[in-house]
Every structure is written in C-alpha cells, then in structure tokens.
Design goal:
Layout lengths: L2 E3 L7 H10 L4 E2 L1 H16 L5 H7 L5 E2 L8 H7 L4 E5 L3 H16 L2 H9 L2 H11 L1 H5 E3 L7 E3 L2 H18 L5 E4 L5 H8 L17 H8 L1 H30 L1 H22 L1
Parallel strand pairs: 1-3, 1-4, 2-3, 4-7
Antiparallel strand pairs: 5-6
Helix pairs in contact: 2-7, 3-4, 6-7, 6-12, 11-12
Length: 272
C-alpha cells in the first residue's frame, strides 16, 4: 500500500482516484471496495479484522480513496504503517453545497434506484451503507426506498470539521499531506516521490456528474447495472408467467364470475 486518502467525499476524491490511476497505482474507490471486498469490510466495521486480515484484503492495491476508507483510515494505516496519508480539503461552504447537490443527483436517479432495488447486490448494499453512507450522511432509508437523508446542516458541517481536525492531529506528520486538488501535480508528486506526468491534472465529478461518469466509464458500476437489468427481466418474466397461470386457473374463472355477478347486482341496485 502506497497511499491512503483520508479526505471526506466531495473534497476531490474522484479526482484523486483518477490521479492515482494516471500515476500507475492500482486504486480501490468506493465501488471496488463495496463490490469486491464487501464481506471483508464488514469485519473492519465490527472491529474483528486483524492487521493481517486487512493486509490480505489489499495485497495488490496501491491506493485507497473515498468511503469507507476516509472513515477507517486509522485502522488501514495500522495495517500499512509505511503508507502515506493524504487529507484532501475544501472550502467548507463549497463542500457542503457540492455534497447536497450530489445527494440530490443520486436520490433522483431512476437507474441507480432501480439497481439498488432489484439487483442481488441491493441487500448487501444496505448492510454495507449502514456503516458507510449512513454513518457519513446521517440516515439511510431501507429497501425499497434506498434514499440517503443527510444530517442537519450544522451537524454535517461539524462532522466535516471534526474529521479534518482528527486526521491532522492523529496522522504521523512525516506521513501526512494536507492537500487541495486545485494545487495540481507539483506538491502531490513531490510528496509521493514520483515524477510529474506529462498530462493535464484531471478534475472529476464536476457539478455532481458522478453517476453519469460511473455508468459510462466504471466497469464495476456497469456490472452492477447489468445485474440489476437481468434481475428486473427475470422478475418481469416470473410475474408474467404467474399471471398467465393464474388466468388459466379455476380460481381466476371463479373470481371473474364473482366480480361479474357483483357488478350486475350493483348496477341493478343503482337503477332502483
């Protein structure tokens, strides 16, 4: 493990994921952690994971970004004490505004909602998000809503400040870089001890475009969506078949006769 990103979501975490990939690092972001290591993360959540367990989880991973990494950066660094820590920061007002816009975008996205409801991963996602998004945003509504409801603004801002303060106080000073993505390549590459790439510094998830970017470019997200579409197709076929069998049954015939008789009685009563 080379670097652990301890910055909160909406402080440039998707930009940093792109940066690490450009630097040749094998990076695990939220989706990779959730999709590939869901069961292993549950052990970290309940405190039963050992340092050896964590090292096995990320044996071939160079960098970690986004939730739940930022919430459990201490546990991760205990397992990988040689790793460097980057705390991405952002002006609090712009951070909060961007956070609310991201939530609004996610909660109003029909495709994402459908995947969460019908995908086999949906139940796993709820248990996982209880410890990640639920802890970070406040309240995660259950299936079939699967919506995120944030804390009160003052609480959300206080959590942001407290997190940044905690990282700056607890992280080893020789391992820590407090960084804003607007600073570009130079301070970051100097800290990591790598050459500056001959490419423009990336800027991802502008204007809460994360969902669109992930569905178009992220293989894990595309796989989750495919599972959701397949599940929805199977459910549709099963419901259609069940409806067909019901219509062919004696129960259906009796129900139709009963409805017809009662409709006729109602009409007679209406005409009196």
């Amino acid at each position: 493990m080379k670097v652990i990103l301890a910055g909160y979501p909406k402080t440039g975490t998707k930009t940093m994921a792109a940066v690490f990939t450009m630097l040749g690092y094998n990076n695990y972001d939220y989706l990779e952690n959730y999709f590939y290591l869901h069961k292993e993360w549950l052990k970290i959540f309940d405190g039963s994971a050992t340092n050896e367990d964590i090292r096995k989880m990320f044996g071939d991973v160079d960098a970690l970004t986004d939730t739940p990494v930022c919430l459990y950066w201490e546990e991760l660094h205990q397992a990988f004490p040689e790793a460097k820590i980057i705390l991405t920061t952002r002006d609090e007002d712009s951070w909060y505004k961007s956070l609310m816009k991201q939530l609004e975008s996610a909660n109003s996205n029909f495709l994402l909602w459908m995947v969460c409801v019908v995908s086999p991963q949906s139940i796993l996602r709820l248990s996982y998000n209880y410890h990640t998004s639920g802890r970070f945003f406040g309240d995660l509504s259950g299936w079939p809503s699967c919506r995120l409801r944030p804390y009160h603004e003052k609480v959300q801002r206080a959590l942001y400040r407290q997190h940044n303060y905690s990282v700056m106080k607890k992280a080893p000073k020789d391992k820590l870089l407090v960084y804003n993505v607007s600073e570009g390549w130079e301070p970051l590459c100097e800290f990591l001890g790598v050459e500056i790439p001959d490419k423009p510094f990336p800027h991802k998830n502008k204007d809460a475009a994360l969902i669109k970017e992930m569905t178009e470019n992220n293989k894990v997200m595309q796989r989750i969506i495919l599972e959701g579409v397949i599940s929805l197709s199977v459910v549709t076929v099963l419901v259609g078949y069940a409806g067909y069998r019901f219509c062919e049954s004696d129960t259906c015939s009796k129900l139709v006769s009963w409805v017809s008789e009662n409709v006729n009685l109602f009409r007679k009563g209406d005409s009196i």
